[in-house]
Specification:
Number of domains: 1
Strand content: 35-45%
CATH topology: 2,3-Dihydroxybiphenyl 1,2-Dioxygenase, domain 1
Largest sheet: 9 strands, mixed
Radius of gyration: 17 Å
Structural class: alpha+beta
CATH superfamily: 2,3-Dihydroxybiphenyl 1,2-Dioxygenase, domain 1
Shape: globular
Number of helices: 4
CATH architecture: Roll
CATH class: Alpha Beta
Oligomer: single chain
Number of strands: 19
Helix content: 10-25%
Length: 240
């Protein structure tokens, strides 16, 4: 269990959000699956914000991960200098944060989050909250070069994942923030979102009962993983 009360170091996944066409239906779904309650655009666990959920139009709803920065404008410039592009330039999200949404050179979307009143998800690494994010891409080498250039990440491999083109992304202090998976069969590059639960199969069953779909269920070296497609086709993974 981790309670977050200050801004995270550069590059740390610190917030996730999703835009949906039917907010009421989305809230019913995520309440049933993860036990979230809601206050405006915020998803709450134990009355603390853990994610964002808002109503709006989107051609392809998907969870967006935001990486921490103490200088959203400066990091946005680093994104474009390294070959990425800005989909939504730096702007104030009320008093909560200064944010931007970008796309890396492989086409994967991610956000930047400079916390002000809200440092990001206030709870992580406990059931019902964000556990990790990994990038899956058919072009791993340009992705690795990009994220190392923008966030000063270092790379190393993972002997537990034999036969998989995987590298850890580590902050300069050595802390692992996620990884990059090279997959030539991936239709597009995308950051995934893994949410911790006490029982992935049971949570997956609740998702299916409330309008979602189980895409895949498998065991991994790190536990049980169940990939869910929510009622709006946004995918995420339940891990236990």
């Amino acid at each position: 269990m981790s309670t977050v009360d200050r801004n995270q170091p550069l590059g740390t996944p610190t917030w996730i959000d999703l835009t949906v066409p039917d907010l009421d239906r989305a809230q019913r779904f995520y309440r049933a699956v993860l036990g979230w309650t809601f206050d405006g655009d915020h998803c709450l666990l134990r009355d603390l914000p853990v994610a964002g959920l808002r109503q709006g139009s989107s051609s392809r709803p998907a969870w967006t991960v935001y990486l921490a920065t103490d200088d959203c404008d400066g990091t946005a410039k680093a994104v474009t200098a390294a070959g990425g592009k800005l989909l939504d330039p730096p702007h104030d999200a009320g008093a909560h944060a200064r944010v931007a949404v970008a796309e890396d050179p492989t086409g994967a979307r991610f956000g930047l989050w400079q916390g002000r009143q809200l440092p990001g998800a206030r709870l992580v690494n406990e059931p019902g909250t964000l556990l990790r994010n990994d990038l899956v891409t058919p072009a791993p080498n340009p992705a690795r070069d990009f994220y190392c250039a923008v966030f000063a990440f270092t790379l190393d491999g993972n002997d537990d994942l034999t036969g998989i083109d995987f590298t850890f992304l580590r902050r300069p202090d050595g802390h692992e923030i996620g990884g990059i998976i090279g997959d030539s069969t991936a239709a597009a590059s995308a950051w995934g979102t893994l949410i911790l639960v006490t029982d992935a199969d049971a949570a997956g069953a609740r998702a299916a009962e409330h309008g979602g779909k189980i895409v895949e269920a498998q065991d991994s070296p790190y536990g049980r993983m169940v990939t869910i497609r929510d009622p709006f086709s946004a995918e995420f993974v339940l891990g236990s």
